[in-house]
């Protein structure tokens, strides 16, 4: 199989910085997987609501986003599997909270907390 011819670089220092910033391909793949999880509007809505609520139970979260409890539970299962949220039980009620610091920061950049009136 033929190899690609060498490329003429215009600015080798920028190429080196770009390659260092990119990191390993596995890391990029993990980030792409993570973004695919939050690319779904329903799951992203859940994450934003959990972020602003601090912690919230499934039925309240379902009411906030206009989804069924079952659909919310299924989405939360996926979000938990990706380490974005965690849950704790208080009696019969399970509360969810955002546990991923990067997601917390991302939500702050995309949708900052509203200023109190």
From TrEMBL:
One Pfam family, short name: HTH_5
Single GO MF descriptor: DNA-binding transcription factor activity
rRNA processing is among the record's keywords: no
Keywords per UniProt: DNA-binding, Transcription, Transcription regulation
Transmembrane segments: none
Top-level taxon of the source organism: Bacteria
Protein name per the record: DNA-binding transcriptional regulator, ArsR family
Species this chain originates from: Prauserella marina
């Amino acid at each position: 199989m033929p190899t690609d011819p060498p490329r003429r670089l215009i600015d080798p220092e920028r190429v080196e910085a770009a390659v260092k910033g990119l990191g390993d391909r596995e890391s990029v793949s993990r980030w792409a997987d993570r973004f695919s999880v939050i690319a779904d509007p329903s799951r992203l809505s859940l994450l934003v609501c959990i972020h602003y609520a601090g912690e919230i139970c499934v039925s309240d979260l379902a009411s906030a986003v206009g989804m069924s409890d079952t659909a919310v539970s299924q989405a939360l299962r996926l979000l938990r599997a990706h380490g974005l949220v965690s849950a704790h039980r208080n009696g019969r009620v399970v509360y969810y909270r955002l546990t991923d610091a990067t997601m917390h920061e991302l939500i702050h950049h995309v949708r900052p907390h509203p200023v109190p009136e």
